Amino acid sequence: MVTTEAEARAAQPILQLRAIEKVFDQFAAVDRITLDIQEGEFFTIVGPSGSGKTTMVRMLVGMDKPTRGDILLRGQRINDVPANKRPTCMVFQSLALFPHRTVGQNIEFPLKIRGVDPAARKKRALELLAQLRLPDHYYGKAVTQCSGGERQRVALARALAFDPEILFFDEPLSALDYKLRKVLEKELKDIHRQTGKTFVYITHSLEEAMVMSDRIGVMNRGRFVQVGTPNEIYGSPTTRFVSEFMGEVNILDVTVGPDGTATDDVTGARYLVPPSAGAGPCSLVIRPESLRFVDGPSQAHNVVTGTVYNEYLLGSRVQYQIRVGEKQVLLLENLRDQRYEGDLDSPVTVGWDTGDSMIFPKGPLQ
Amino acid sequence: MNEIGRPARWLYGMLIALVLLFVYLPMMTLVMASFSRSKFFKFPIPQFATNWYADVFASLSIRSFFWTSLVIALLVATIATVLAFFGALAFARYRWAGRKLYQKVLLLPILFPQAVLGLALLLWFSAIGVTPSWQAAVFAHLVWIAPITTLVIAIQVYSFDPAMEEAAVDLGATRWQTLKEVTLPILTPGIVSGFLSAFLLSWANFPLSMFSTGADQTIPEWISAKIQSGYTPQVPAVGTLTMLAAVIVMALGGFAAWLHARRRAGLA
């Protein structure tokens, strides 16, 4: 088979991490991570605070050096290349806009450093303002006078002016309110399509990652717990940690017997569960939307009886808190037009199908 | 909320007026004494005159003391600001082994009684064979003033987001370009106030100058000497002029701060 040079280039990942490790005082903040990121991909690293995601991105942009392992950019080892010599750049969590400069001067900064003449700089800055839907007159505005969303756009414009091969983001939206964040997430995805650049994004919100990414890497304690498309992460999480990270889930402590059925450690009820890797103590995870009200045991693989204790309206959806016995609380989510008609505190039967539940053995890597 | 009642507000006003009176009345007395014709201060002043100012401006010796003071203060302010700029970055910006100790050691000279510090320096100068002179005074002032300037600039450095320097480097700037384009301009207000405070502290300093200038003399030294022997109303006249110089320097600083704030707000 004949491969052209262009095909070979396209096949090679733009960024390769080879067992990179960052050790602080004998603590591995990033613990032997190997990963390939493809040209043009929107890759999101998601994890709780302290999971090592910021340490990792600081090594990728060149602000820290890995203790061990290699970082390859288009096949070239770049471990020792300082940040200002790398063709990559980052949008910071604090945005790090220069307060003594106008919007235009901020955007032009990388071009000025490169010695581009003022007229060409201004032309490019105005193009970027237009691309990010900021009016032309913002060119002369002080960045200190801009709103949170506008500052985000200026920071992104400044990074795009650099024309990086890979653009990194370190939780730039985390300080904004929910509504604005939702708008900017979508804008960012648009910008990704328009520019065709490789984006590597860091966030602690899996929800944010789902909206924007081509692929997601879920990080915990310095390692990737799971890497996959948003669909894979949501549909088939490989650990309890990943399933929990997505949002509210019901987690039941169960013990799987030799016959493959699970016994609830709290209520003693028996459930049919998906085939599991082994017997013994496990976590049974059921999403609230997989749980439904049923009339009897014939309508679902597993049923439990309890009482409706609370109802929460979530706009297009509605959630119910179901109390089972003294100690167990389940969360059930329905569409708003399938509201529960009965009274609170009245007995109900709820159920779920085996295929809608997930079972993870209890172990150190959860 | 925190509304102040009428009697409380009245008391408040009284208190402020008293404080202002307490602080500024002695200085007003000084100004009045300098404009009195009589050699000794009487109140109310029998006859106003400006002859003591004429004497001051005519006096070649006072003129030379003025230049000595000015040159010392300018040199001290310049050197202290340069040292303090880098010292403040080490103090407030970078994490390094021994930073805590450095922060404490740096503050010690400020807490020493200046007379003791002056004596120590004098002994030190004689031990290493340096003749006391205005150059030695520059060094003596620096020992006390550079730490203060460092603190003044460090306050500004504390409010500086280190990510801004990282962002500049990330966008391709060298260390030097980062310093020139980002760090220095953002720290300018702190640097200016550090320079001004260093200038004023040196300009007004007596104890350290007394021990270190040797045959040279600064304005505060001259004032002190004249009070001990040979008082004339030239002394309050020089005092008033010295104060005026300090006020002008502070006003210039205030004007610079106002210009800076205006520019940052995007009005100019």
> CATH superfamily of chain B, called what?
MetI-like
Strand residues, percent of chain B? under 5%
Give the second-level CATH assignment, the architecture of chain B: Orthogonal Bundle
Number of helices of chain A: 9
Structure, described:
The complex is a heterodimer of chains A (366) and B (268). Chain A has 366 residues and is α+β, with helices and mostly antiparallel strands. Chain A has 2 domains: 13-242, P-loop containing nucleotide triphosphate hydrolases (Rossmann fold); 248-289 and 299-361, no CATH class. Chain A has helices spanning 5-11, 53-61, 103-113, 118-131, 148-161, 178-195, 206-212, 230-235, 240-245; strands at 15-24, 27-37, 42-46, 68-73, 76-77, 88-91, 166-170, 198-203, 215-220, 223-228, 250-256, 261-264, 270-272, 280-286, 292-294, 302-314, 317-324, 328-335, 347-352, 357-361. In chain A, helix 3 (103-113) runs parallel beside helix 5 (148-161). The model of chain A has no long low-confidence stretch (mean pLDDT 89). Chain B is an all-alpha fold and 268 residues long. Chain B has a single domain (51-264), classed as MetI-like (MetI-like fold, Orthogonal Bundle), CATH 1.10.3720. Chain B has helices at 6-34, 51-58, 60-93, 99-111, 114-128, 134-158, 162-170, 175-204, 207-212, 219-228, 234-264. In chain B, helix 6 (134-158) crosses helix 8 (175-204), helix 7 (162-170) runs antiparallel to helix 8 (175-204) and helix 10 (219-228) runs antiparallel to helix 11 (234-264). The longest helix of chain B has 34 residues, at 60-93. The relative contact order of chain B is 0.13. The A-B interface holds A 61-63, 82-84, 89-90, 92-94, 96-100, 102, 109-110, 112-114, 140-142, 144-145, 158-159, 162 and B 161, 163-164, 166-174, 177, 181-182, 185-186, 188, 264-266.
What's the SSE blueprint?
The complex is a heterodimer of chains A (366) and B (268).
Chain A: H1 5-11, E1 15-24, E2 27-37, E3 42-46, H2 53-61, E4 68-73, E5 76-77, E6 88-91, H3 103-113, H4 118-131, H5 148-161, E7 166-170, H6 178-195, E8 198-203, H7 206-212, E9 215-220, E10 223-228, H8 230-235, H9 240-245, E11 250-256, E12 261-264, E13 270-272, E14 280-286, E15 292-294, E16 302-314, E17 317-324, E18 328-335, E19 347-352, E20 357-361
Parallel strand pairs in A: 3-8, 3-9, 6-7, 7-8
Antiparallel strand pairs in A: 1-2, 1-4, 4-5, 9-10, 11-12, 11-14, 12-13, 14-20, 15-19, 16-17, 16-19, 17-18
Chain B: H1 6-34, H2 51-58, H3 60-93, H4 99-111, H5 114-128, H6 134-158, H7 162-170, H8 175-204, H9 207-212, H10 219-228, H11 234-264
Helix pairs in contact in B: 1-11, 3-6, 3-8, 4-6, 6-8, 7-8, 8-11, 10-11
